[in-house]
Amino acid sequence: MGPLTPLRGDTGGQVMLAVVLLVAIAVPVLNLAVPDGNPWHVSTYTVTLLGKYLSYALLAVTVDLVWGYLGILSLGHGAFFALGGYAMGMYLMRQIGDRGVYGDPVLPDFMVFLNWKELPWFWHGFDMFWLAALMVVLLPGLLAFVFGWLAFRSRVTGVYLSIITQALTYALMLAFFRNEMGFGGNNGLTDFKDILGFNLQADSTRVALFLASALALAVGYIACRWIVTSRLGRVAVAIRDAEARTRFIGYRVDRVKLAIWTFSAMLAGVAGALYVPQVGIINPGEFAPLNSIELVVWVAVGGRATLYGAVVGAVLVNYGKTYFTGAFPEAWLFALGGLFVLVTLLLPRGIAGLFRLRLRRRTEAPAVREARA
Amino acid sequence: MSPASQSARDLMRRDRAFDFSSQQRAWLQFKESMRRDRQFDFMVNVKDLELDISHGPILYIEDLNVSFDGFKAIDHLNFYVDAGELRCVIGPNGAGKTTMMDIITGKTRPDSGSVYFGQKIDLLRLSEPEIAEIGIGRKFQKPTVFEHHTVFENLELAMAGDKRVFPTLFARLSGEQRERIDEVLGIIGLGEQAQREAGALSHGQKQWLEIGMLLMQNPLLLLVDEPVAGMTHQEMDRTAELLLSLQGKHSVVVVEHDMDFVRSIARRVTVLHQGTVLAEGSMEQVQNDPRVVEVYLGE
Q1: Are residues A266 and A83 in contact, defined by beta-carbon separation less than 8 angstroms?
Q2: Contact present, B229 and B185 (Cβ < 8 Å)
Q3: Do the chains contact at B173 and A255, CB–CB below 8 Å?
Q4: Could you tell me which of A112, A116, B69, B240 has the fewest CB atoms within 10 Å of its CB?
Q5: Domain spans in chain A, listed from the N-terminal domain onward
Q6: Are B148 and A241 within 8 A, CB to CB?
Q7: Tell me: the pLDDT tens digits for A173-229?
Q8: Is any Cβ of chain A less than 8 angstroms from the Cβ of B192?
Q9: ipTM
């Protein structure tokens, strides 16, 4: 069983990853090797934009894992994304050192501004990349574990669960807005200078971050695919379709949910950590309930329970958003809203539903499932 | 004399299909050791104990009473099922058939009386999942299969084995397990449909799949609630064959309303009425019993 085994029979995923691979090879070459005036040159702005889309795509995959395969409609996944982002932001803040406006060697600018004399305890150690990287997965994981343990054990499901995930991210947003929390209040964390000693403004660093996002998406996708194609994945779908029945045949439904939910949150944290150095800021707005709802819409547009559909949806919707904001600054919200309405009406299974229909027509004979042997 | 005794150790002894994890074992041991009436039982050699069906019956229900808000659903019920037997239970609505099933599977607790699995395992002391694990399976009236899984996958999910999270994540089908699934597919007659989505099956096929899912759990005793409700005549015949093929290997209790169906499978029939046994015997004996005719058949 090789690392690509989970992709067997997943035509959509194979095509999606092939495109990601192609873009990951072509874009750096066109950015770094082709000179500025050449029509083939890809601007650094575009590289960063693509990198941002890829981190969104990874986030969408984590939502599809719990929504499409486990039946948990999370309206709070933005919280895990933002927590991972904050962990990365704290590292980047510490990297500024004495180059901040106030020139304090240890304290980030906002703490000097607030007249704080020393670093709060939870900021210690974030000058070390390895610890920050660990926190990127541990903090969202821990939050998801505690939240999930309480919610799943009490058998909170359906719309009630969705509402409390929404409340979770809203509460975090309010908390992070407070200056006393020690995360920069409503300004958040920004003015980053470098990462691992490399200048964040340099083209090569931008390209490296873009490549890291592509790699994270590919690895994250394959990991989710691996879970989905395992027996645990089939149990997850069984829970989605008939939870009581699954419990009755002997599976600990709460634990299955908890495991997949926590994994999904950790991966969402990774997406957030890749997002922050590319956009250059993290603030409490990332916890906004609207963000979490929007990312559910990406998954719905792409096609639920396909994983690759989430990637397609995230990239397309965000591209649309970028395009519409530029083309019709006044009307872009209407254009976006119209897109959602159209997709829901005409493509209930999302964009992936279109592909699937075509695939089924081509391979009329029932596909033999030897993949599992 | 206390047949209630070492139910926990009984479970451990019967290592056949049910591998208890060490935590479960410790928990059951702990639960047993906390019983006031048998403080010193953990001294007993576990090897001496097992599911004891040496006297014939696999299920003993004695002097059982249950009432809901003053209504006596079960009234001094005595009921025995022999190992390997196929038994039909009939009776008018409200006779206590489903309540009896609920008590056996641990869903409902009786007011008094005793329920033993074999001579030594006291079912009243076990929880619902524990009862399922020691080998009592139940099919509900309304079939619930996993609609988006194939027939094969439905059976795979129901298979007895380690169902904790990580073992499930890394689980691979062994050749032996595959053979077992194929065998059950043969028994329920869905070999051709193995790769179809269960949601696409007919009502009758779903019922058989559900029986197949029960069989995957290697139950010793199967409780089947109204298996032919809503079936066509061909499907009923097929179901009768299926249930008949199980006797000997499994003990089966069938609750059913359809008289033709009961006639076609029953060796022994128990008639319940107002929570107690009205008559028991072959179909002819029961049918000719004037009391039975009065309450049920003569309608």
Answers
A1: no
A2: no
A3: no
A4: B69
A5: 5-364
A6: yes
A7: 999 999 999 999 999 999 999 999 999 999 999 999 999 999 999 999 999 999 999
A8: no
A9: 0.86
Q: B56 to chain A, minimum CA–CA distance in Å?
A: 28
On whether any CB of chain B is under 8 Å from the CB of A249, the answer is yes
CATH code assigned to B85-107+131-297: 3.40.50.300
- Alpha carbon distance B223, B102 (integer Å): 10
Q: Which of A246, A255, A367 sits opposite B165 (nearest CB)?
A: A255
The residue ranges of every structural domain in chain B are 85-107+131-297
Amino acid A20 reads V
Q: Do A234 and B170 touch (CB under 8 A)?
A: no
Q: What is the pLDDT of residue A73?
A: 95
Q: Which residue has the tokens 């009630």?
A: A160
Q: What is the distance between the alpha carbons of residues A132 and A87, in angstroms, rounded to a whole number?
A: 6
Mean pLDDT of B106-123: 89
- Cβ-based neighbours of A362, under 8 Å, separated by 6 or more: none
Please report where in the chains the tokens 């950015």 appear, as a residue: A31
How many CA within 13 A on the CB side of residue A316? 21
- Identify residue B218 by its one-letter amino acid code: N
Helix (H) or strand (E) holding B254: strand B251-255
Neighbours of B247 (CB within 10 A): 15
- Contact of B150 with chain A, judged by CB distance below 8 Å, is answered with yes
Residue the block writes with tokens 């190992």: B83
Exposed (0-12), middle (13-18) or buried (19+): which is A149, by Cβ within 10 Å?
middle
Q: Is A218 near chain B, with CB under 8 Å?
A: no
Nearest chain A residue (CA) to B137: A249
- Give A-chain residues touching B101 at CB under 8 angstroms: none
